[in-house]
């Protein structure tokens, strides 16, 4: 019986009564030794960490071409009718992210990367085709 009590991890003290005999067992545990944690701090060089679109500084050579920017802005103007907030909202919805993660069209000419252009143009083209068919983009 003592072996069973010894194997219990949740109970430190137990009283057992058998007939007129009362047995009280108190389990003494060894003091817990402090565990040293090995932590390693890794710092990434600039440009390899996570950044939101609002704080991203594009690297040279990764910027979208002038043609990509013009095409994206033309589509955005046709779809949004001058209201770029609707365009940003639509892009955020299509990319399943929040609006602050979308690069605002007013910054496309100087900060749009090729990755932005690829994602945004695909979505804008799709919405423009829908708009032509049903007279309204993003359900307008």
Textual characterization of the structure:
41% of the residues lie in helices and 9% in strands. The protein is mainly α and 140 residues long. It has a domain at 66-134. It has a two-stranded antiparallel sheet. Helix 2 (66-80) packs across helix 3 (84-94).
Got a strand count? Answer: 2
Radius of gyration: 32 Å
Mean pLDDT: 78
Structure annotation, total helices: 5
The share of residues in extended strands comes to: 5-15%
Straight-line N-to-C gap: 76 Å
- Largest β-sheet summary: 2 strands, antiparallel
| H/E element order | HEEHHHH
Proportion in helices: 40-55%
Look at the helices and sheets and give the structural class.
Answer: mainly alpha
Strand order of the largest sheet: 1-2
Overall 3D shape? rod-shaped
Catalogue the unreliable spans: none
């Amino acid at each position: 019986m003592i072996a069973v009590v010894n194997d219990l991890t949740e109970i430190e003290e137990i009283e057992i009564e058998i007939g007129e005999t009362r047995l009280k067992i108190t389990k003494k545990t060894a003091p817990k030794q402090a565990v040293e944690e090995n932590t390693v701090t890794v710092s990434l060089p600039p440009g390899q960490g996570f950044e939101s679109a609002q704080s991203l500084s594009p690297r040279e050579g990764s910027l979208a071409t002038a043609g990509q920017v013009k095409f994206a802005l033309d589509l955005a103007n046709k779809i949004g009718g001058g209201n770029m907030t609707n365009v940003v909202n639509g892009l955020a919805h299509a990319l399943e992210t929040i609006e602050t993660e979308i690069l605002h069209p007013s910054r496309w000419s100087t900060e749009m990367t090729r990755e932005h252009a690829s994602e945004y143009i695909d979505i804008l083209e799709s919405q423009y085709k829908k708009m032509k068919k049903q007279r309204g983009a993003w359900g307008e």
